[in-house]
Design brief:
With 457 residues, the protein is mainly alpha-helical. The protein contains 13 helices and no strands. The protein has helices spanning 7-14, 16-25, 38-71, 75-83, 85-125, 137-159, 167-194, 200-233, 238-248, 256-278, 286-376, 400-417, 419-452.
């Protein structure tokens, strides 16, 4: 769309017809003349100031907008950062590697110390085998929970008859009995495990405790049966009667349901004892120290893997950043070049606007003269030549920034021409840094293992 208004709009804005009528009445447009009238000169001033001035401001704003957009681009900075990839990657790798190597060193010391403690423990206790225990604690506790709930559910039915709260009261009583069974199972399993200890005195002490806890467990299980039998007779005196009958005749249970409770409690107690015994190694304390060594061994292996992964992540991150900078640099170069071409186009459009403004001026002067001739009813006045713009007085576009950016474009074109080579060289350098970092980490891990004796135990 042209920036120069149509002649009709200019005639209307100038009120040219009224101006002609006024000049005719004043006798200004004489027949033959070689000088332009004041009105004709005002037409040139109007086109130069109002029309061309408005177009100049618009084109200058467009030129400035393009220059501002080019100034916001960071092509040189991106190219410099691309060249500094090796330095940045080296800093990043050294930073991460330093922290990882310190953590590896500490983990190796902890593992070496735990292994030494394990060997001392084996030597002092005459052990030549590995500890045998269950790895999953979750499964262990889930099984115990199932046994306790199963025992509680079965006993709740038998105890509900003598409770004021019915089945709910029987459930709470049965649950308390199951917890007591659980505690007894823990003590019996611990005492049984200590019977395998190397020290004779410790074996004798825990042998006595094992017999005591086993006897207490038998009496407790039989007491449950006596309590269930006493509930049938009188719930309010059941506890007192159960204790009396238990001391008088422990096996004197005559109710079938009470014997079922005894059997259920005995089975649950035996299952809990077996579970607590087999979940750890039969030798006391062997499981804890062996588990600690295995946990530290697992931690050491994880840290070794993490050391490579951390450095690998740093390399991958640098490669992604490098690719992104390469993409941004090419994109900004295209924008920079397109902006310069657009600025050149704006300047050409302004020159075309000047030519169209001159044509508009000629048309307005002709209209002024022809309209005055029609009013005066004689031939058109001769005025020598049409008005021309004095090009030196017209506003010029400020393209200082454009000229400077055109010079920069030549440098950028050479830079982009070598960008593929620079990018490939940077990627190759990243690969070399990665291989060197991996070799350094392997050497460090090998040295730490030798210094701390972390070979196969």
């Amino acid at each position: 769309m042209t920036s120069i208004p149509a002649s009709k709009s200019a005639i209307s804005a100038l009120k040219l017809e009224q101006r002609v009528e006024r000049d005719v009445k004043a006798g200004i447009p004489e027949l033959d003349r070689t000088r332009h009238t004041e009105s004709e000169e005002s037409i040139r001033a109007y086109v130069a100031n109002e029309v061309v001035g408005k177009v100049h401001r618009k084109r200058q704003d467009e030129i400035d907008e393009q220059a501002g957009a080019r100034n916001e681009l960071h092509i040189r900075q991106l190219y410099q950062e691309l060249g500094n990839t090796d330095r940045e990657l080296s800093k990043k790798i050294e930073s991460r590697k330093s922290a990882l190597l310190q953590e590896l060193q500490q983990s190796a010391r902890d593992l070496a110390s735990a292994r030494a403690d394990l060997e001392i423990f084996r030597h002092n206790n005459g052990l030549t085998r590995d500890a045998e225990y269950r790895e999953s604690k979750l499964l262990h506790y889930a099984t115990i929970f199932f046994i306790v709930i199963f025992e509680t559910g079965l006993n709740a039915f038998f105890l509900s008859r003598g409770s004021e709260l019915g089945l709910l009261g029987g459930f709470f009583q049965a649950f308390i009995l199951s917890l007591v069974n659980l505690g007894l199972a823990v003590f019996i399993a611990s005492s049984l495990r200590n019977l395998f200890h190397v020290h004779i005195l410790r074996k004798l002490c825990f042998g006595v405790l094992f017999v005591a806890f086993s006897a207490a467990s038998i009496y407790f299980v039989l007491g449950v049966g006596h309590y269930r039998e006493a509930l049938e007779a009188n719930p309010f005196t059941a506890s007192q009667v159960a204790v009396t009958s238990l001391w008088a005749d422990p096996w004197g249970i005559r109710d079938f349901n009470s014997w079922i409770m005894v059997i259920v409690s005995a089975i649950a107690l035996s299952a809990l004892v077996a579970k607590f015994f087999v979940v750890e190694d039969r030798y006391p304390g062997y499981t804890a120290i062996s588990r600690r060594v295995r946990d530290l061994q697992r931690r050491w292996l994880e840290l070794c893997g993490d050391a490579f992964n951390e450095v690998g992540d740093a390399v991958d991150e640098t490669q992604q950043v490098l690719s992104e900078k390469d993409r941004q640099l090419r994109s900004q170069f295209i924008q920079f070049k397109a902006s310069i071409e657009r600025s050149e186009e704006i300047r050409r459009e302004y020159e075309e606007d000047i030519a169209r403004a001159q044509a508009l001026l000629d048309e307005l002067v002709r209209y002024y003269q022809s309209h005055s001739a029609r009013i005066m009813n004689r031939r058109a006045a001769y005025f020598g030549e049409l008005l021309r713009f004095e090009l030196g007085t017209l506003p010029k576009l400020n393209t200082v920034g454009l000229d400077q950016h055109r010079e920069e474009l030549q440098f950028f074109e050479k830079m982009v021409a070598s960008l593929d080579r620079e990018y490939a060289a940077a990627m190759e350098l990243i690969g070399e840094r990665w291989e060197k970092a991996r070799a350094d980490i392997r050497d460090f891990i090998g040295r730490v293992e030798r210094e701390n004796g972390l070979g196969t135990p």
